[in-house]
């Protein structure tokens, strides 16, 4: 069993539920070390005192905040812990909101919350089932690793899931960051065809259908180079569609998407028909075996 990266209590009203927090996701990662080009010499990083040039042990390093003019305020780890003794052990829910009201942009990272012991499993199940029944998420704040997080706590099947979230002032204004966003709304035939294309390309959300092809290519590249081979990919970079060609591109895209959907449905029907035929054949064989077994048993009785 995995080790909890944080443990504490979910509190709502006068109820406290002891929980442990566990990572719910893991990213595809291929480890690379750094080398000096043309050599097999590793590049390594050290924590060095810029005045003495000497390496400093990790336990001798403290944090300092720049307050301007080259002056720093040094803060000890113990001081950071002392200012949030309760929050570092508490997920205090102050309100429950409808899940559909939360903009996905606020979500940051997912964690599983598990009951800390069997004795308190009933209170864990109570909160989980109540959240599922109401389609609500608890909004809470807590401190972990020297940082305060905003979080939602929601039900997902048998487990409670915590999503760390960005605070409102951490989300950048698109107008300030991007500028030049189109103010005029799309209308007419172009909009109608774009809607048709979206409808033609719509389907069920099947997360297992999506694979990390880039990571697979990196693995192939490493494997090929290790074997002394060369891997060449020749994909063309997409070009912006000319506004004058937009209608034609949309029309062709809609036709292509509809053909692809028809082909998918046809394959699905054939697969279903094959399975149905296989079941009927298996059922007939089973019935035939039972009939033969009964006839054999009757013959044996008569012979006796």
Can you characterise this structure?
The structure is a single chain. This protein is of the alpha+beta class. Among the domains are: 6-25 and 82-170, Ku70, Chain: A, Domain 2, CATH 2.40.290.10; 199-235 and 243-277, no CATH class. It contains 6 helices and 9 strands, in the order E-E-E-E-H-E-E-H-E-E-E-H-H-H-H. The longest helix is centred in the last third of the chain and has 58 residues, at 246-303. Helices cover 36% and strands 23% of the residues. The strands form 2 sheets. The chain has a 7-stranded mixed barrel. It has a two-stranded antiparallel ribbon with strand order 3-4. Helix 4 packs parallel to helix 6 (246-303). The radius of gyration is 31 Å and the shape is extended. Homodimer. Interacts with LigD. Residues 257-304 are annotated as: Disordered. This is Non-homologous end joining protein Ku. GO terms for molecular function: double-stranded DNA binding.
């Amino acid at each position: 069993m995995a080790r909890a990266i944080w443990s504490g209590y979910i509190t709502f009203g006068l109820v406290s539920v002891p929980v442990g927090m566990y990572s719910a996701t893991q990213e595809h990662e291929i480890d690379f070390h750094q080398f000096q080009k043309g050599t097999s010499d590793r590049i390594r990083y050290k924590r060095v005192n810029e005045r003495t040039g000497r390496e400093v042990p990790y336990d001798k390093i403290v944090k300092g905040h720049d307050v301007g003019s080259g002056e720093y305020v040094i803060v000890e780890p113990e001081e950071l812990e002392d200012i949030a003794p309760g929050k570092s052990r508490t997920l205090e829910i102050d309100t429950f909101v409808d899940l559909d009201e939360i903009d996905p942009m606020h979500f940051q990272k997912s964690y599983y919350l598990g009951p800390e012991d069997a004795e308190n499993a009933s209170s864990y199940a109570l909160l989980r089932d109540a959240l599922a029944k109401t389609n609500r998420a608890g909004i809470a704040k807590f401190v972990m690793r020297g940082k305060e997080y905003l979080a939602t706590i929601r039900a997902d099947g048998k487990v409670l899931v915590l999503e760390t979230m960005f605070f409102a002032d951490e989300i950048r204004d698109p107008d300030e960051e991007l500028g030049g966003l189109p103010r005029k709304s799309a209308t007419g035939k172009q909009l109608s065809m774009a809607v048709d294309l979206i409808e033609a390309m719509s389907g069920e959300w099947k997360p297992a259908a999506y694979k990390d092809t880039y990571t697979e290519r990196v693995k192939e590249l490493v494997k090929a180079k290790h074997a002394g081979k060369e891997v060449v990919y020749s994909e063309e970079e997409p070009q912006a569609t000319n506004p004058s060609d937009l209608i034609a591109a949309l029309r062709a895209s809609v036709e292509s998407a509809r053909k692809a959907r028809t082909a998918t449905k046809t394959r699905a029907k054939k697969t279903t028909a094959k399975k149905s035929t296989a079941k009927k054949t298996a059922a007939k064989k089973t019935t035939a075996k039972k009939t033969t077994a009964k006839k054999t048993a009757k013959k044996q009785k008569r012979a006796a």
